[in-house]
Amino acid sequence: MSSRPHVRTGRPPTADVGAPSADRKAETVVETAVGHTVDAAMDALERAATSSERGAVVGDEFRAARDAFTALVQVDAKAVRSRLDRVMMGEDPELGLELLATSGALEAIFPEVHAMVGFGDGEWRHKDVWKHTKQVVRQATPRLEVRWAALFHDIGKVKTRSISPDGKVHFLGHAEVGTRMFDKLDRRVPLFSTQEDVALRSTVRFLILNHLRANQYDPNWTDSAVRRFARELGEHLGDLFCLSRADITTKRPEKKKKGLGQLDDLEARIRRLAEEDAKVPPLPSGVGDAIMKAFSLKPSRQIGEIKTTLEGLIASGELEPHRESEFYVAFVGDQRARFGIPG
Fold first, then answer.
1. Are 317 and 293 in contact, with CB atoms under 8 Å apart?
2. How far apart are CA 120 and CA 127, in angstroms?
3. How does DSSP classify residue 56?
4. Alpha-helical regions (H) of the chain
5. Does 62 have pLDDT greater than 90?
6. Average pLDDT of the residues in 1-6
7. Which of 63, 33, 35 minimizes the C-alpha distance to 47?
């Protein structure tokens, strides 16, 4: 076993080298008890991490009080985070997460996640959110950002569940609510607070907030909508696709095939459009001359500025690229003031 965090409670020792006082004896008993309790908490985390890595339960069961896990996080957050990372990245993270739940660690460290345990069974007519979450973590690409996002992506469902008159269950706004819950969790638990974790924390938060977007894709999306989607996801696009694929946990083969197929289609369209855009300028040749002729403008810096504005609107998805000059002339004419052209 690795070294334990040293936990001290009570007053510091006095300079008296004689027989310990009754107060000091009591203090030592408290300190020893707390140390053993924290050791049990660390043992529980280590067992979950090792079991996840090996894909099988190892060692004896450990349980610890909620206060022990809380104290452990405060005195050695780095050691706690290290073991939790091992759970997340192990061969069988489902097993590791279940051991965190049965040991008391999950409820103590991440009560927002523990609230999903058993949430959805029986009368509620929707999948067990905890079972779904564990499966998503297991199916996710073994990258730390994606696995942590998978663990937290549905925490907002507990607070947003509603049932419509026809009996259907809804979780409206659970991505946004879950993101706010992650922010509060991050302020409460110092596990993602180091300078090295800035990028990880930012990515996990982004993925929680946007985890539904790729699975909302419809083949009828225009090319402009696909470009806008890719631009808004930016550097997180690859991680989002990984999470979105993992988030498909249906047992119905046809439904799963359809969901994965739509993600493949969206990804292929993004690649194709990026390749096209890299080869062909977004505005047609001669659009500057067409604008000058339509609005009786002379060659000047203003024409360049109008074209730059149009290119920016295309990049933002507000305007379609690769259209004929007349299309852009009409757009400028409809918004003269925006382009500095007198009415």
1. no
2. 6
3. S
4. 22-54, 66-75, 77-89, 93-103, 105-109, 111-114, 129-139, 144-152, 157-160, 174-188, 198-210, 223-233, 237-246, 253-279, 287-295, 301-315, 325-334
5. no
6. 44
7. 63
CB 2 within 8 A of CB 39: no
CA pair distance 327, 172, nearest whole angstrom:
39
Classify residue 142 as exposed, middle or buried by CB count within 10 Å of its CB (0-12, 13-18, 19+).
Answer: middle
Distance of alpha carbon 14 from alpha carbon 335, whole angstroms: 81
Cα 118 from Cα 135, distance rounded (Å): 14
**CA 210 from centre of chain:** 8
In angstroms, the Cα distances linking 80 to 122, 223, 287 are 34, 46, 61
Name the residue with tokens 């730059």: 308
* Mean pLDDT (whole number) for 130-150: 97
Mean pLDDT of 95-116: 96
Distances (CA, A) of 274 to 55, 92, 228, 315: 41, 37, 12, 11
CB-CB contact of 211 with 243 (8 Å) = yes
CA distance 57 to 178: 31
Facing residues of 162 across strands? 170
Q: Does residue 7 register a pLDDT over 60? A: no
> Token pair 């295309």 is at which residue?
314
